[in-house]
Amino acid sequence: MTQQVKKLLVIDKDAAVRTSLKEILEYESYKVDVEKDTESAFKKICKGGYDLIMSELQMPGMNGVTLLQKLREQDNYVPFIVFVKEVDLDEIVSIMKNGANNVLQKPLNLNKLITSIRQILEENKTESRNSRSSKKCESLPDPITEPKNITPIIGNSEAMRHILQMVDRLALTTEKVIILGENGTGKELVARRIHEYSRRRDKPFVAVNCAAIPLELIESQLFGHEKGSFTSAIKMHKGDFEKASGGTLFLDEIGDMSLAAQAKILRALQEKRITRVGGEDSIPIDVRVIAATNKDLRKEIREGRFREDLYHRLSVVVIRMPSLAERKEDIPLLIDYFLEKKEQEYENKKMRITEEAIYELQQLAWTGNVRELENYIERLCIFCDEIITADDVKKYASYY
Predict the structure, then answer these.
(1) I need a labelling partner for 364 at 20 to 30 A (CA). Which of 69, 105, 138, 296 fits?
(2) Is the same domain home to 353 and 290?
(3) Please, what's the b/e burial string for 148-183 (b: 16 or more CB within 10 A of its CB; e: otherwise)?
(4) Torsions phi, psi of 306, nearest 5?
């Protein structure tokens, strides 16, 4: 049985863009119509027959999102991709909330565009219109209620409120993220929150410590290997990219990865495919990549230790985690949280702390950030009576 050719509509005010996209997509075996304005496009769409629509956001008259809204109001859930010139997080979230399947930045990365079209059409093939509608209207968990089995991010400082706002907005997108910050600031917590509030939350979250993987094992760890591909390969092994299929791959300490390993990561991200060590089959991957590092990547690039092309591939959005010294007003909240955790471990010991003790804790440097504070509270709980005093803080501070 001959497979039906998918019909696409491209809406863009730039004639060169329309022409080039039509040629490229027709080469990919799609049937392609083009329009220079949304009003004419709307009339065409109302006649039906399109499998996917792509529109530039900024159009004369009715813009791309207004067109999308009009279609959704008419219960028309044809897949829709929006092109934007600038990456503005608030704008991307708004576009996605209005029912777009993806938002891509101009000038377009053609590989990313074609991959996105294929994925959307494949998803659309197996879903009825009703199931698509419910997916578009799917609400994320109440931001006040943490998902199960996730450590909350504690903080009410201006810096942390800004981080949480960014994180909750990012969860609505599929964009790549780099999280920068000192050790102990909570980079993995942020990555997990983005995953748990996203539509990928029912799929795996796979965390990889890039600094801990020897170069000779990097391919096997990330991309897997086939049985017999090397001496100790006694069975087939799926790599972390495959294990994270449909979910999120967290590349922690990516700044410590060797240049050779960075090149392998870059290739996987560019092609959205991997090949297991010793294998021949090219395996498509569908993962959201979040990376983190405590290094200054701009400096690492200048000094030749980090690939600039990989940085730009990963850094659609950059989050900088503040050190604990930059948000000392959050220390009382963190202390309460850690004390509550310890109380759950002790059956008959209820720990309390004086205001003077909290003040003394706020004066310490906390070079190890939140992780150091947690360890110190645990030490105080072990050696102190039920009430932690300022003298206790001064006494046990010398243990660091």
Answers:
(1) 296
(2) no
(3) eeeeebbbebebbeebbebbebbbbbbbebbbbbbe
(4) -140, 140
In a domain, 150, yes or no: no
Parallel/antiparallel/unpaired status of strands 283-284 and 273-274: antiparallel
Does residue 143 fall inside a structural domain?
no
Q: Tell me, rounded to whole angstroms, the distance of Cα 334 from its chain centroid.
A: 25
Q: Are 219 and 261 in contact (CB under 8 A)?
A: no
Q: Closest Cα partner for 361 from 386, 388, 321? A: 388
pTM of the complete model:
0.66
pLDDT tens digit sequence for 138-195: 333 333 344 556 778 898 898 898 888 888 888 888 888 999 999 999 999 999 999 9
Q: Among 274, 300, 320, which residue terminates a domain? A: 320
Q: Give the residue ranges of DSSP H helices in the chain.
A: 15-27, 38-46, 64-73, 89-97, 110-125, 129-136, 158-170, 187-196, 215-223, 240-243, 259-271, 297-302, 308-314, 331-345, 355-362, 369-383, 390-397
Question: Is there a single domain that holds both residue 289 and residue 167?
Answer: yes
> Rounded to whole angstroms, how far apart are CA atoms 323 and 157?
12
- Asked if 348 and 376 sit in the same domain, the reply is yes
Where does a domain end: 136, 167, 192? Answer: 136
Same domain flag for 247 and 260: yes
pLDDT in tens, 52-84: 999 999 888 889 999 998 888 888 889 999 999
Q: How many CA atoms lie within 13 A of 357 on its CB side?
A: 20
- Looking at the domain assignment, is residue 31 inside a domain? yes
pLDDT-based confidence at residue 238 (cuts at 50, 70, 90)? confident
Q: How many C-beta neighbours within 10 Å does residue 214 have? A: 9
| 151: in domain | no
Whether 34 contacts 80, CB under 8 Å: no
| pLDDT higher than threshold 50 for residue 131 | no
Task: Say if residue 24 is exposed, middle or buried (CB neighbours under 10 Å; 0-12, 13-18, 19+).
Answer: middle
Whole-number percent of the chain with pLDDT over 70: 89
Domain span holding position 11: 7-136
Q: What value does the mean pLDDT take over residues 121-132? A: 54
With a pLDDT cut of 90, the percent of the chain lying above it is 43
pLDDT at 330 (0 to 100): 94
